[in-house]
Amino acid sequence: MTRARIKNIFFILGIVAVVIMLLTFEVSFVELWHYICHAGYWLVAIFALWGILYLMNAWAWQVIIRGSGPCPVSFLYLLRLTVSGFALNYTTPIGLLGGEPYKILEMTPHIGVQRATSSVVLFAMMHVFAHFCFWSSSILLYLLLALFGILPMNVGTALVLFFMTVFCSLGIYLFSRGYRYGLVRHLFIIISYIPGLRGWGRRMLKERHDDFVRIDRQIAELHSQERFTFYKSLLIEYVGRVCQSFEILFMLLLFDHNGNFLLLFSYSFLILSFTSLFANLLGFLPLQLGGREGGFAISVSALGMTSALGMFISIICRVRELFWAIIGLALMKAKGKSAKDE
Hints:
This protein starts with a helix and ends in a 9-residue tail after the last helix. The chain has helices at residues 3-23, 29-39, 41-66, 75-91, 96-147, 155-181, 184-191, 198-207, 209-225, 227-255, 261-281, 291-302, 307-333. The protein has one domain. By secondary structure, the chain is mainly α. Helix content is 81%, strand content 0%. The chain is built from 13 helices and no strands.
């Protein structure tokens, strides 16, 4: 199958998912317009915020690529692939099966299949690893606010925090091992035992075993030899997750103009953390349909806020996802300058 045909398949899958997204809003189009009007200029600020977040994602990816050699493509080209890659991740089941193969496909002509694969896998690992660090931070923040009597602490909350602590500790441990010894070969070993993917996984493991070993070696080398590159890209990704909290903050400010800014930001941090954890646990759903809305409803109510606020936040976030998904899919078809000059 040609490279152009594979790109068209990704594009069509994205378009179908966007249509599904439009048809599965939790509210009518009249109500949706009411929510958008209520958000007002804050919606523009949210769109712009995510433009900044994508810049940070592209920067982190560029840092990783340069950790293994020169980066022959421009930053704008990486930014375009980043936006399109996340658009595919939003719109395909088990997100990473959409955006990451697309980015590998696009970068292979420029840096070779092994470097393209290792850089994309490393970025995906760093992106998820930053989430685990972010979720761990939220546990500490909640405990701090509970210590001062600002947030409640009961048996149910304690159990949730305990589950999050175990989950984050396990995730950080597994990713630490993955950075030390590589992850790609072990991932395909696991896939080779999954019904429906067993044959494909074993065939890939047999045909590409040496390539997987080399990719894993490059991943391990970044962690062991390029520590500055590793921690720089991790810091960029983690700061990006913290900055994402401003999206929730903008919406909380609509309902509480005179509230304590630091406290509202803390609430935004916690809402984003709990919601993203819940949504990622349901990551097999395309567009995380239902998972994100449920996450917002649970996290907002846990902080003593109204369900109406949770609905408002979830709808505006869905509008933002749709906006950037359309831009990302459009960029897949954009024909501009060469990758070096773009």
